[in-house]
Amino acid sequence: ELLGLLLILWIGRSDLLTVTARWPEFWPDASAVTWYGIFWGGLLAFYAYIGFEDMVNVAEEVRDPQRNLPRAILLALAVSFLLYFMVAVVAVASVPAGALAQAEAPLAFLYQQMTGREPVTITLISMFAVINGALIQIIMASRVSYGMGRKGWAPAWLSRVHPVTRTPVIATVLVTVLVILMALWLPIESLARATSFFILMVFTLVNIALWRIKRRADRDYRGFSVYPWVPVAGALGALALLLCLILLVCLIYIV
Description:
The structure is a single chain. This protein has helices at 2-11, 13-16, 19-26, 32-44, 65-94, 97-102, 106-115, 120-151, 169-185, 188-215, 229-254. By secondary structure, the protein is mainly alpha-helical.
């Protein structure tokens, strides 16, 4: 997946070098339609950032997690932001925005337009990237189900661990089946919208929970810690995006 994004950047490197001089072309106008598209696209694409926080669900498998997990999360977030931003800049600098918007597979279309070749390479890489994203979510959801089963918040059979692999096989199989069913029967935009909705809800609740924990007198932190205003800002930011998503969905169905 990383090599696929770097390939796009390498192919479009000449256009990337002209961005500074062409920056006014990329600045959006003040019309409501333009900003509606920006917010809607940003909210739909929010699901692309899930994954970097999933590593906390395998904390038991990490050496020195108090030291390594915070660094890994921040590093993964920074690398993801930089790559997504640069690929987006290359896309709008290399291909007309209207043509890119009409493409069913934007990265494949971008590769074809910039190289003049059939997008076989980038298509194969994209297939592996999709599978990789699904595997990450399967690992995360199965570990969450395992933990809930151990706590008694879900059926106990979800916490059963295979004697050889030492992994929650039943929970993994269940999550895998659910992912396959949703991928086969639901449109990609509906999946992206639903995923963004639920992840924003989770982010809001997690930040509120962290704020509550930091207010407790018996709190005991080991390793990474943040100032109290950080979870407050995180909760308000995620809640604002969640409300925007709900409003935009309502407008779509009304119009």
